[in-house]
């Protein structure tokens, strides 16, 4: 259920002021909660969780979003479909402006158009990328992976960190979040141009065409920098950034960012580290996996594969112990509503794209086969089922670049949470590790695992 309705009651359009009162109010609530329930046990830890990548372990605090296995991602309690409906759109646009989801993740409230516009203006104002970053990117060899370039470019902004300076000047802990907020706004403002510089250097003419246009929204400028001004591509970028903005705190990107920032490392260094996590094929490689799969099918069997043949090929693929990319999820137990949004976009704007047609055939065939196979907990599409196809259609063909695009979008969520982490005064993360030998001893002695 949505906690709050659109914000007629907000007198000030100043996001930072609003945030100050929200953080204060929340901290009082948390303080009372901890006094009453600080010792309450919420989950038992099993040996399998320890060996299994901490899967399902409820041990991280994330305020901005939460995945409901049956409904999908909830941004501050709002289901994704509600966000698509309620968040402000550009004039003549149908997709939400990601500036609005940033406001929502930060405040828990659906912004009005003026509040979203204020963020667009603010990000345009802060968007200039320092010359040294541009020069550094130009010196990288073309063989250096775009994610390594992204991580390096973000780290090289750290010299301008307002949080690092404030910390060195010994500002009170209660005001840390204000400086993290400033860094977060600066980073978000600069990311589209940094991503576009990487893209244009590696794959195009090395020039980011056009200056920032402060009358346009963040995604319009981003699309122009990438080299495609078409209204449909701009709409896709708005949707894409809203879709990938946040996915609770346990994914490797958000978790890395939160961990690194917990040492009070500045937001640039924390997000640069998170880009290292996103660069891993298990994190940022899934868009591409779907395209490789579609490419394999079409190069061997053409575009018009009839249903019977498709079923045969899918079984053949599964029998050779391979997964069908774009299907299944670690937490979700239904079609990812974010994929539903991508699919609707594709059906509307590129109904005749041959990959889109093949995706539709798969959409109608794969779940039944996965159910019949009987292993998969969720046989339905995940967010990656159509994402790469849409990007390819609009000319972003270079699959190595896709994680960079996720990195731009995910900064919205990671930065929102980081502001809250410092606002709540969360401590440095320091879980206890244990060796197999000690774990065996503990289990034998106590029969339950209790770290002390
Ligand atoms: N095709 C075939 N088999 C699949 C499958 C798929 N799409 N999804 C899961 N399975 C298999 C698993 O490999 C596992 O088999 P084993 O028992 O033999 O190991 C079994 O079904 C149970 O797996 P699960 O519990 O349903 O799923 P997991 O939590 O282990 O894995 C994955 C979740 C997303 C990694 C998995 O569904 C998968 O590999 N999907 C295909 C790759 C893909 O689309 N990745 C993108 C993920 C996007 C995302 O997470 N976004 O948030």
From TrEMBL:
Q: Is this entry keyworded Protease? A: no
Q: In which pathway does it act?
A: Carbohydrate metabolism; tricarboxylic acid cycle; isocitrate from oxaloacetate: step 1/2
Query: GO terms for biological process?
Result: carbohydrate metabolic process; citrate metabolic process; tricarboxylic acid cycle
Q: Name one Pfam family in it.
A: Citrate_synt
Q: What is its subcellular localisation?
A: Mitochondrion matrix
Q: Indicate the principal place this protein occupies in or around the cell.
A: mitochondrion
Quote one Gene Ontology molecular function term. acyltransferase activity, acyl groups converted into alkyl on transfer
Keywords per UniProt: Transferase
Q: Which domain of life is it from?
A: Eukaryota
UniProt xrefs under InterPro entries: Citrate_synth-like_lrg_a-sub, Citrate_synth-like_sm_a-sub, Citrate_synthase, Citrate_synthase_AS, Citrate_synthase_euk, Citrate_synthase_sf
Please give the subunit comment from the record.
Homodimer.
Q: What is this protein called?
A: Citrate synthase
Q: Which organism is it from?
A: Acrobeloides nanus
């Amino acid at each position: 259920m949505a906690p709050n309705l659109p914000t007629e009651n907000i007198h000030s359009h100043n996001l930072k002021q609003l945030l100050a009162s929200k953080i204060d109010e929340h901290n009082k609530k948390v303080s009372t909660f901890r006094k009453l329930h600080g010792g309450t046990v919420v989950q038992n830890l099993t040996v399998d969780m320890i060996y299994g990548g901490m899967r399902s372990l409820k041990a991280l605090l994330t305020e901005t979003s939460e995945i409901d296995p049956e409904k999908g991602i909830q941004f501050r309690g709002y289901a994704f479909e509600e966000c698509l409906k309620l968040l402000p759109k550009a004039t003549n646009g149908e997709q939400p402006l990601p500036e609005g989801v940033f406001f929502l993740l930060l405040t828990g409230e659906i912004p009005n158009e003026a509040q979203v516009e204020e963020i667009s203006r603010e990000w345009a104002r802060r968007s200039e990328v320092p010359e040294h970053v541009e020069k550094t990117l130009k010196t990288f060899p073309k063989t250096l992976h775009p994610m390594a370039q992204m991580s390096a470019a973000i780290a090289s902004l750290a010299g301008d960190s307002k949080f690092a300076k404030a910390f060195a000047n010994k500002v009170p802990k209660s005001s840390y979040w204000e400086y993290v907020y400033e860094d977060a706004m600066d980073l978000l403002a600069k990311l589209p141009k940094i991503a576009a510089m990487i893209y244009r250097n590696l794959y195009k003419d090395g020039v980011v065409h056009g200056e920032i246009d402060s009358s346009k929204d963040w995604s319009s400028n981003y699309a122009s920098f990438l080299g495609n001004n078409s209204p449909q591509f701009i709409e896709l970028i708005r949707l894409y950034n809203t879709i990938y903005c946040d996915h609770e705190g346990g994914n490797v990107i958000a978790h890395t960012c939160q961990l690194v920032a917990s040492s009070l490392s500045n937001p640039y260094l924390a997000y640069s580290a998170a880009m290292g996590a996103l660069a891993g094929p298990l994190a940022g490689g899934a868009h591409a996996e779907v395209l490789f799969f579609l490419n394999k099918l079409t190069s061997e069997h053409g575009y018009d594969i009839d249903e019977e043949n498709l079923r045969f090929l899918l079984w053949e693929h599964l029998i050779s112990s391979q997964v069908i990319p774009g299907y299944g999820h670690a937490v979700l137990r239904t079609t990812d509503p974010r994929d539903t949004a991508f699919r609707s976009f594709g059906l509307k704007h590129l109904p005749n794209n041959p990959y889109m047609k093949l995706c539709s055939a798969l959409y109608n065939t794969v779940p039944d086969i996965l159910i019949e196979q009987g292993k998969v907990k969720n046989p339905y599409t995940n967010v990656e089922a159509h994402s790469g196809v849409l990007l390819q259609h609009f000319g972003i063909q270079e699959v190595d670049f896709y994680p960079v695009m996720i990195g731009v979008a995910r900064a919205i969520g990671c930065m929102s949470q980081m502001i809250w982490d410092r606002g709540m005064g969360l401590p440095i993360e320091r879980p206890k590790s244990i060796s197999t030998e000690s774990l065996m001893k503990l289990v034998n002695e106590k029969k339950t695992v209790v770290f002390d």
